[in-house]
Amino acid sequence: MLDKILHKWLRLPYRLHVTIDRKVKRPRATLLFIHGIGLSSEAWNEVVDKLPRDIRVITIYLLGFGQSPKPKWAIYDVRLQARMIMATLLRLRIAGPVILVGHSLGALVSVEIAKKYPLFVRSLILCSPPFYRQDASTKRLLPHAENILKDIYRAIHKNPEQFIKISALDAKYGLVNKSFSLSNDDVHSYMGALEASIINQTSLRDAINLKRIPIQLIHGRLDAVVIAKNLKYLAHHNPNVTFSTVLAGHDVRGLYIPAVVKAIEAATATKRGLKKR
């Protein structure tokens, strides 16, 4: 009850759990890694290991995941996540600008941070962002891919127990990132984030409006949950967006890892993450 009074009604922000804070005396850049839904900050370990030592690196658990708080009353939308991240970074005395590296749900949260706190953000690297258009028509002979995916997500939302069992098998046979974990302890926050941040989102429209922040999109060509056409649509409507593909699936593993490292090298090589011309 006290938790609800302090954090829901009085709006005191939670402090998220920081798993890595690689401090550098005079960092060339500061990177904040934001994991995807059902994953943990450990999903970034292989990327972090390949980065230069003059870059400050921070990895965190989103609210509702890992060792961060998991309030059952929370609406796990990107606005709440962005506010908790900012509060955590301010406690770390980080004033920006920061390069945000987000995967899946973390990519949508990164867009929200850039939207709400543009002066804090140097650039965005968005890995497998599940951008869905709100205006996907239902009056078609064949439904939009967005609507098919959203129907699948709604079925998952209605059957969390079955999804936990399926996820356990996926993890057992290496079909998902090894950091993926879903249990009765955090299924409520997973389902909450699925509904509030992914099914009901404005992230694509928001990313189009980020005209002053460099954005790098990375897409796995074997990704079944990201609509490549939407990424191309974003790149077409926002001239500050670059779009690259890699022979990989949704998760940051295998061939995806060097692609992320390359994007980070490009973002940290020039002033404020802008591309060399």
Alpha plus pi helix count = 10
CATH class: Alpha Beta
| CATH fold-type name | Rossmann fold
Fraction of residues in helix: 25-40%
Instruction: Let me know the average pLDDT.
Output: 91
Number of domains: 1
Strand residues, percent: 15-25%
Taken from the alpha-carbon principal axes, the silhouette is: globular
Second rung of CATH, namely the architecture: 3-Layer(aba) Sandwich
Oligomer: single chain
- N-to-C SSE series? HEEHEHEHEHHHHEHEH
Spatial gap, N to C terminus: 56 Å
The largest pleated sheet is described as:
7 strands, mixed
Which descriptors apply to this entry?
about 280 residues; alpha/beta; Rossmann fold; seven-stranded mixed beta sheet; 10 helices; about 15% strand; globular
Model description:
By secondary structure, the chain is of the alpha/beta class. It has one domain: 3-Layer(aba) Sandwich (Rossmann fold). It is 39% helix and 15% strand. Strand 4 (98-103), helix 4 (105-116) and strand 5 (121-127) form a beta-alpha-beta unit. The longest helix has 14 residues, at 78-91. It is globular, with a radius of gyration of 18 Å. The model is unreliable at 273-277 (pLDDT under 50).
